[in-house]
Amino acid sequence: MKRLTKNRIRSTDGAVLSELRKKLTAADSDKLRRCLDYVLESERLKNAVVGLQQNPEALEAVCARSYLHANGFYKITLWDSPEFKLRLHCRDVVSAPEAMEHVHSHRWAFASYIFSGGYRMQLFVEADSGKYYQKHRYLRLDANKYRVEYLGKVRLAVETEATLCAGSSYVMLPATLHNLTFKEKKPFFSLVLTAPAQRPDCLLYSRNAYNSNPIVCQSLDFNLVQERLNLFLSLL
């Protein structure tokens, strides 16, 4: 994985988006990884984020499509198009006990790069042995609204696990069941490039069973997003 270098490449956010659209004509793993490499090369990402900050109208749009995720991190969607989404995931300092996400899949394939902090990732499969979990269908209704439907009790077995830290990158396919355990007591930042959704729902496994009426995620405050972007820029 290429790390950011000090060689300056002049690029506007519009140029970055245009080039990504050309590259993301299919959502295979190698293409996602190459596209994320492209974003991370030189100061391309830094220049694009600074360009966002200097455009109040564009930044207001970022705030409108960003929210605090139920798993405890800020999901800041920097750019959104039919071909891809480029998101910044950030989490404040983790305090005891460790923050562990529900086991889940996704509707899309994605590539991720960690800038700060880290976590242990576990991959799961449904099996005849293992711990019992409550299985749910997680249905996205629109950009900031979702519903959870209970499907029943199943067993999950850990297939593999790895510890990822700053500088790590990976590609995740939609059906992969996984969770993340955050250990490091420092702010967490990662960049996530997602391909178009392949299905309208994904799966979520938790210790407790629940159904929900439609849940609306509140958009993030302008000042909060600016603050998180400033912290992110300090890492580049």
Description:
There is one protein chain. This protein is α+β, with helices and mostly antiparallel strands. The chain has helices at residues 13-23, 29-40, 44-53, 56-64, 222-233, and strands at residues 67-68, 74-80, 85-91, 99-100, 103-104, 110-116, 118-142, 145-165, 169-172, 177-182, 188-194, 201-206, 215-216. The strands form two sheets. Strands 4, 5, 7, 8, 10, 12 and 13 form a seven-stranded antiparallel sheet that branches. It has a six-stranded antiparallel sheet with strand order 1-2-3-11-6-9, with helices on one face. It is globular. It starts with 12 loop residues before the first helix and ends with a helix. The model is unreliable at 1-12 (pLDDT under 50).
Write a short abstract of this structure.
The protein has one domain: Jelly Rolls, CATH 2.60.120.10. It is 23% helix and 42% strand. It is built from 5 helices and 13 strands.
Order of helices and strands: HHHHEEEEEEEEEEEEEH
Q: What class do helices, strands and sheet pairing give?
A: alpha+beta
Instruction: Output the CATH topology.
Output: Jelly Rolls
How many beta-strand elements?
A: 13
End-to-end C-alpha gap: 15 Å
As a whole number of angstroms, the C-alpha radius of gyration is 18 Å
Mean pLDDT: 84
Task: Produce the secondary structure layout.
Blueprint: H1 13-23, H2 29-40, H3 44-53, H4 56-64, E1 67-68, E2 74-80, E3 85-91, E4 99-100, E5 103-104, E6 110-116, E7 118-142, E8 145-165, E9 169-172, E10 177-182, E11 188-194, E12 201-206, E13 215-216, H5 222-233
Antiparallel strand pairs: 1-2, 2-3, 3-11, 4-10, 5-12, 6-9, 6-11, 7-8, 7-10, 7-12, 8-13
